[in-house]
Amino acid sequence: MNSEITVKLPRCKGCGICVAFCPKKVLGLSELGKVVIENPDDCIACGQCEMRCPDYAIFVDKKVAK
Fold this sequence. Notes:
Residues 3-32, 33-63 form the 4Fe-4S ferredoxin-type domain. Keywords: Iron, Iron-sulfur, Metal-binding. By secondary structure, this protein is of the alpha+beta class. It contains 2 helices and 4 strands; from the N terminus they run βαββαβ. The chain has a single domain, classed as Alpha-Beta Plaits. The protein has helices at residues 17-21, 48-52, and strands at 3-7, 27-29, 35-37, 58-62. It has a two-stranded antiparallel ribbon. Strands 2-3 form a two-stranded antiparallel ribbon. The longest helix has 5 residues, at 17-21. It is globular.
């Protein structure tokens, strides 16, 4: 995994913008309409989800290789 994704569920309104912009289909929406991390190992840490979230509910922490 190239990154660690953190979701602040109370902030998420389930708009799906982060899901739509994820180029690797890492994110999805749960039955409750909240974002879920479905394929964390596929994340390339591009930050599109974090940049596009209107509610500041998702954060991408890029991991640096040692």
